[in-house]
Amino acid sequence: MVTTKFSFPLVIVLCFLLSACGDEIIPTPKPRAFPRVDYPQKAYQSFDKDYCSFSFEHPVYSSIEQDTLFFDEQPDHPCWFDVFIPAFDCRLHCSYTPIGDEDKTFEALKKDAFDLVDWHNKRANYIDELLIDKGNNVTGIAFSIEGPAASPLQFFLTDKENHFFRGALYFNTRVRPDSLAPIYEFVKEDVFKLIETFEWEEGV
After folding, report:
1. Which of 47, 52, 120, 133 is the most exposed place for a label (fewest CB within 10 A)?
2. 182 is in which domain, residue-wise?
3. Predicted model pTM
4. Which residue from 164, 152, 139, 160 is spatially nearest to 188, judged by alpha carbons?
C-alpha cells in the first residue's frame, strides 16, 4: 500500500494559489475624464462705458470689470478693463493708451505689443499673425499663440495717430491646451466678434 504524505505548509500554499485563480476581476485604471462643459447661447451686447472712447460688442454672458489697480498702482488710463466670462473663468485683459507722448508713439506702443507676445514665445509652439484692416480707421494685428503659453490670443487695434487698444486672453486653469481647445475655440469667436464690431467714437 502506497501512502502519499503532504506537509501542512504545502497544503496552505496550494489552497492560496487555487483561490487566487478564481474569476475575480482585476480593476484597471480609467482614463481621466474632464467635467462636462455647458456652452451658453451666443448673443451679444454693446459696450457702453463712458471711460472709453470706442464701442464694440461682447457676449451677454460676460461682464465688464474696470481695472482700478495695476501692480498696486493706478492704470495709465481709466480705460483699462477686463471682459470676464465666468462660465469658463477666463478674462480678456484690455488696455487703452492715447498716442502722443514721446514714449507713447505708435511705433513704441506697437513694439511693446510685440514684446509682450514674444514673452510668451518661450513656451509657444507657434505664433500666427493675422493682419486686421476693418476699413473704418481700425487696423491692427491678432496673434494666435499655439502651445502651453499663458495667453493663447492677443491683439492690438489702432488708428496709428490717436488711439491704441490692446487685448490679451487668459484662462485661469492649468488644463492642457488640447483639453482646453474646444472652450478656447468658443471664446475665440467672441474675441473676434469684439474686433469685428470695434469702432472709435466720432470726433475723438
Report:
1. 133
2. 61-200
3. 0.78
4. 152
Beta bridge partners of 130: 142
Chain-wide mean pLDDT for the chain? Answer: 82
Q: What is the model's pLDDT at position 188? A: 96
Establish if 163 belongs to a structural domain.
yes
Cell numbers describing residue 100 = 502722443
CATH assignment of the domain containing 72: 3.40.1000
Q: Do 14 and 8 contact (CB within 8 A), yes or no?
A: no
pLDDT score for 13: 46
Calculate Rg over the CA atoms of the chain: 29
Q: How many CB atoms lie within 10 A of CB 112?
A: 16
Q: Structural domain tally of the chain?
A: 1
* Strands ordered across the beta sheet of 80-85: 63-66, 80-85, 90-98, 163-171, 153-158, 139-146, 126-133
Between 17 and 117, residue with greater pLDDT: 117
Position with higher pLDDT, 57 vs 18: 57
